[in-house]
Structure formats: C-alpha cells, structure tokens
C-alpha cells in the first residue's frame, strides 16, 4: 500500500535460493500504534497471519495465500533437493487444503488457491518440478500485480459516483491494507481526491476488532483525506442528520444474485442507508464474486473467538462466563445495494442478470 513510509502491505523477499525466499507483510494487528513488518518463512506462519488478521481483507488474504502455497513447497527444495512429481503434487494439495482452512468467508482465498492449483495441474507432466515451482511463484506475483491494477480501475469507476464536496461513509477497512495497494472502497476516495474533488469521510470504528478506527482512519489520514471517526452505533443518526451523501464498502463474497458478505455491521449500515434514501455502494473485484452460490444465506460466515468481544485488546470488558455470539461478517441483501463497483465498471441495478453480464463475461480476464 502507499503510506507515508511507502511500506508494502505484502511483498515477496526474493533470495537466490527459492527455498529461502519469504513473504513479508505489515502486521496489521499492531496498527495504528506500530507500523511493523513481519516475515513468514513457513506455511504455518502464513496460516497464522491470515487467521489472526495480521494480513486481512479479502484480496490481501488471496495474495498471501498464493505466496503461502509457494512457501508450503519450499521444504521440498531445501539443501538442493529436487522432489519427484508425485511428492510435489502431494505437498501442493496439502498446502492448498491447509491454507483454505484459515478463514472461511472471503472467497478470494479460495479463488487464489484454485488458481494456483489449476496452474500446476495444467503443466503436470509437461514441466519439471523446479519449473512448476517457478511457474507457481510467477502466478502468485501475477495475482499480486493484477490486484494493483484492479484497485486502480475500481477507484476510477467509483470516483465518477462521488460529487465534489461529498460527505461519505465507510465501514471496516477496504483500503491498501486489505489489497495489494490502494484498496477497493477506499480506492474510490483516493481516486476522487486525486481527481481534485474535496471529500469528507466518516469511518465507522467497526467493532469488535476496530478495523475502521485502527486501519481506515490511519490510511485516510496518511492520504490527507478529511476523516471523522464514529462508533458503529452512530451511523444511522449521522445519516438522519443529513451528513452522508453515499456509503462505500468492500466485500468478502458476493453471490450470483448480488447478496454481499462483508464485515459484521455492514448490513445495519445498508439498512440505515436504505431508510434514509442514501446510495449504498459495494466496491469489489470480480474475484470476490462466488458464482457457485445462488444467494447470501449460503455464504459460510466465520465465527471468531468470544474473547474478541469479552476481552477487547486484552482488557476484560464483559463478565466471566457470559455467552457470546461473534460472527465476523454479515450479508447485505442485493436490494439494499445501489451498485457494485468492479474493475470492469459499475453493476447497477444489482441482480442476477446484471451480474452475469459483467462478471460472467469478464471472469478470467486480467488486462484492464
Ligand atoms: O475480518 P477482515 O478484517 O478480513 O474483514 C475485512 C472486510 O470485511 C473488508 O471490508 C473486505 O474484506 C473487503 S477488503 C477490500
């Protein structure tokens, strides 16, 4: 991502020896207090980083997992070893299965893992295992690089929806930290600002893990965007006060009919926006669409550790023994969504036909 220090959300640290290269990432659990990078040298540390939200946000999770597959294969190539093809593929499948079990909701994770697996399978028997490892690393880098371009395109399309002087609202973090660079929902704000429009953004703090307060507020300040932080429960009132012209959020999985899973609390924001006649936009790449699911109730919703609610950031904030329900995402029904901003344009109205028109047609296309 582009921050003042110009530190990448994710980067591949290349060593001469494939087996010693590693995945570097900003540890997002430390922000905004500390901007620190960590290196993942084993597949277990990549898995842990995804699970614990050191790297988070649907596109960034997909990129991390793609590199994670390469890291999973590294032990086969240590000390100049070259595995046989069967051992190579067994390890590949084991790595893919393992990483797929890190988080269940963001479909970009499975999309990236499938892409890696399918690439290797398409060359099976035609390339040596060393060449296959090189091809997989090149594919992970391609997924990473494509996401940069995709985010810029989303920003360009989204910025057209933003009026000069607009006051906007976002929930969670769909910025450079959640992607290769620049973001999806936040890309809209960055591109609007770059186009010379003056904007103001309300950022929901986003309970329980405060991605809005810790990450979105930080990113917007880094970019010199006028931002006001509010608690999630204030959004409806701020809308009623006439302070919001439009809402922009990201997505973790969008089904065939446009139902959209995103950070818990997004549905409440969408419902409040609908009540107040405020446009509600989702910004997401086509890799976030799951064309195997007919509608939103089929999306697997991650449930996280109750401690995230009872012991927020290490401080006990609820009585011992209380029962907790902690879904990390909710689903906003398609009729609540004014438009979905993709790298191929804005889908509006949002329904099965319009989604098939844009996503079906462009899936697999990467040139923008
Ligand atoms: O639990 P998180 O922080 O991974 O949730 C992230 C979100 O809900 C984002 O809005 C979504 O992944 C889109 S990121 C471009």
Which range best describes the helical content: under 10%, 10-25%, 25-40%, 40-55%, 55-70% or over 70%?
Answer: 25-40%
Please provide the ordered H/E string of secondary-structure elements: EEEHHHHHEHEHEHEEEHEEHEEEH
Q: What's the overall geometry?
A: globular
CATH class category of the largest domain: Alpha Beta
| Average predicted local confidence, pLDDT | 96
Instruction: Indicate the structural class.
Output: alpha/beta
**Alpha plus pi helix count:** 11
* CATH architectural type of the largest domain: 3-Layer(aba) Sandwich
Q: Largest sheet, if any? A: 7 strands, mixed
Termini distance?
20 Å
Count of folded domains: 2
* Distinct ligand kinds: 5-S-methyl-1-O-phosphono-5-thio-D-ribulose
Enumerate the strands of the largest sheet in spatial order, edge to edge or round the barrel.
Answer: 6-5-4-7-10-13-14
Estimate what percentage of residues fall within beta strands: 5-15%
The count of strands amounts to 14
- Give the CATH H-level superfamily of the largest domain: Translation initiation factor eif-2b, domain 2
Residue runs with pLDDT of under 50 for 5 or more positions: none
Gyration radius, rounded: 20 Å
